[in-house]
Amino acid sequence: MSEISDIEKCEFLYLHEDAVREVREKMPDENTLYDLAEFFKIFGDSTRIRILYALFERELCVCDIAGLLNLTQTAVSHQLRILKANKLVKARRDGKTIFYSLDDKHVHDILDMGIEHLFD
Amino acid sequence: MSEISDIEKCEFLYLHEDAVREVREKMPDENTLYDLAEFFKIFGDSTRIRILYALFERELCVCDIAGLLNLTQTAVSHQLRILKANKLVKARRDGKTIFYSLDDKHVHDILDMGIEHLFD
DNA sequence: TGAATATATGAATATCTGTTCATATGTTAT
DNA sequence: ATAACATATGAACAGATATTCATATATTCA
After folding, report:
1. What domain range is A44 assigned to?
2. How far apart are CA B98 and CA B82, in angstroms?
3. How many domains is chain B partitioned into structurally?
4. What is the distance in angstroms between the Cα of A82 and the nearest Cα belonging to chain B?
5. What is each CA distance from B112 to A100, B3, B35, B106, in whole angstroms?
6. How far, in Å, CA of A70 to CA of A26, rounded?
7. Which of A7, B1, B91, B119 has its CA 20 to 30 A from that of A72?
């Protein structure tokens, strides 16, 4: 009986040590992968996706978006805050109204690639 | 006093009717956008992102991945099931071992574009 | 056949996240 | 200054989700 528990043996042994060693060296930085997941999390919500698509055509104010997508003003505001914090949209004030528009050249390409995957 | 509540007036009026009408016509199908969000949800988890990056180099078995990423076998299995269900990875059995590898040509491009956004 | 190994899976739990509600902030017009 | 309007925000709540635990399945080997 070694120190390694029989029950979870697989947890502590590399079945293919050379493969694992090679992969480990080439893996990107841990923090980068974490940030990357956080970034994609933004696209993982249909409300935000719909807002982004709405803004593809032209800038819109909060109430336009709420009416267009049948959402409350509050819900839209909350989501816009997230999108803005992640530099996907930007805001411009005109009197009482605040217009939102896209602020990232990659967004369109990323979403298109997702669509491509869906229709394979 | 009209039927429209004063408090939520913005909810029921289009501030910019023409804009909203134009955008509504060009919006993609509602179901497509929902599926798209579901697809990106998969990338919104660092464990799954790490697994995908590990598989960029070469095929690996469940225990390799668990050891490499310091995760339990069970956690890896659960995530691989999700990745497989969404056709991002495929499995190949060799005796007791099951090797997983990437199964989508878009994954690499999508992740790269995410990285690009991060490093802007 | 039975023991050992590699992986899968259902249920429970804890955490995260989106929406709602109530309210605050900021701008315009009277 | 005050009312009306557009938007923002904090707290509470409900639903989703990743991990863990216990256990099942599948394959190999003695």
Report:
1. 2-119
2. 16
3. 1
4. 15
5. 27, 52, 21, 10
6. 46
7. B1
What CATH number corresponds to the domain at position A26? 1.10.10.10
- Test mutation, A4, A64, A92, A109, chain B, max B CBs within 10 A: A64
Q: What is the pLDDT of residues A6-41, one digit of tens each?
A: 334 555 566 788 899 999 999 999 999 999 999 999
Residues of B within 8 A of A57 (CB-CB) are 22-23, 26
Taking chain B, what is the end-to-end CA distance rounded to the nearest angstrom?
52
| For residues A84-110, average pLDDT | 94
Q: Is the pLDDT of residue A2 over 50?
A: no
Concatenating the DSSP letter of every residue in A73-85 gives HHHHHHHHHHHHH
B110: helix, strand or coil: helix
**b/e per residue, B25-54, with b = 16+ CB within 10 A?**
eebeeeebbebbbbbbbbbbbbbbbbbbbb
Q: In a structure prediction context, what are the per-residue pLDDT tens digits for chain B, which is 120 residues long? A: 233 333 445 555 567 888 999 999 999 999 999 999 999 999 999 999 999 999 999 999 999 999 999 999 999 999 999 999 999 999 999 999 999 999 988 899 899 889 988 887
Number of residue pairs across A and B with CB atoms under 8 Å?
189
